[in-house]
Hints:
By secondary structure, the chain is mostly helical. It has 2 domains: about 1-65, Arc Repressor Mutant, subunit A; about 70-190, Tetracycline Repressor, domain 2. Helix content is about 70%, strand content about 5%. The protein is built from 7 helices and 3 strands; from the N terminus they run βββααααααα. It has helices at about 20-40, 50-55, 70-95, 100-110, 115-130, 135-160, 170-190, and strands at about 1-5, 10, 15. Strands 1-2-3 form a 3-stranded antiparallel beta sheet, with no helix packed on it. A hairpin with a 2-residue loop joins strand 1 (about 1-5) and strand 2.
Amino acid sequence: xxxxxxxxxxxxxxxxxxxxxxxxxxxxxxxxxxxxxxxxxxxxxxxxxxxxxxxxxxxxxxxxxxxxxxxxxxxxxxxxxxxxxxxxxxxxxxxxxxxxxxxxxxxxxxxxxxxxxxxxxxxxxxxxxxxxxxxxxxxxxxxxxxxxxxxxxxxxxxxxxxxxxxxxxxxxxxxxxxxxxxxxxxxxxxxx
Length: 192
């Protein structure tokens, strides 16, 4: 039995110093393994033992980091949300204008981000959210809404800068761009 206490891993009388970097790297490896397996096998079919093996851990070791598959799924989801929002903010800050920021975000999402497993995992998470609308679905809706708000802010800024016609409904355009992005991601999964 292992207990993680204040940076130490305690095991039947032995004490091993575990660095924060080690724990973070292990956690990241587990999240990556889970995302790959969720994409390959589906969320329901992937077991904690499968994920542990994919992460090169013992079956019991994974529970030091995540108490359940549901907790792990939420962590994978949170990681994807954080990654998407960070990408959005990085592109928006680096762009010389709001319209250029929209173009850069679109280019990154539609052209450069071509990780098939990540796309399949995103779809698996959307399906899980649809099956569990009052649990995981609420979180997915909040994430989509935050992305839509970021898009709307960029569109309004572009309108203020004279780059997009002010008569266009910024909220409707943000929704359209988000829906189009989802469609493009689905099309990326088509073979050939």
